Amino acid sequence: MGGSQVIFRIDGIKTEEDVPLKCVIRFSDGRDSIVVPPLLPLDGQSVICRLPPEIDSGSVVVDLEATSTRIGEVGIANITQSTKTVLLSEAVFIDPNPSAEVVVEENWDTNELSLTWDS
To answer: Phi first, then psi: what are they for 50, rounded to 5°?
Structure first.
């Protein structure tokens, strides 16, 4: 269902400001990729990429991109720049008809609704 999330373990990748992270969602049906901002849990060991709610069926590949740029000097006034990109990917299949059930029970005496989720 839309709003699904993919959790990436990021051992060895520092989530500092100088290493920007982005989640790229690639569609299997040829649509253009979209970029969503990652969520960074406080544990510092994982990154969450959450799919937008409008993605409600099909197959997508979620990429987590981490890009770092280093600037160094070689001799006097010779500046070099190197960029390194780390890419983690996971394929996700979203079933438009999940085998889950929500049971709604009405209690008119107390004006209450009871919702039971059975995954």
So the answer is: -105, 130
- At 26-68, the pLDDT tens digits run 988 888 999 999 887 777 678 888 888 888 777 889 988 877 7
Q: pTM for this one?
A: 0.62
Q: Give DSSP secondary structure letters for the chain.
A: -TT-EEEEE-TT---STTS-EEEEEEETTSPPPEEEPPB--TTSSEEEEE--TT--SEEEEEEEEEEEEEEEE-SSS-EEEEEEEEEEEEEEEE-SS-S-EEEEEEETTTTEEEEEEE-
> CA torsion, points 45, 48, 28, 35, in degrees to nearest 10?
-110
Spell out a b/e string for 30-47, using b for 16 or more CB atoms within 10 Å of the CB, else e.
eeeeeeeebeeeeeeebb
Q: What is the distance between the alpha carbons of residues 71 and 65, in angstroms, rounded to a whole number?
A: 20
Which single residue is written with the structure tokens 């989640």? 23
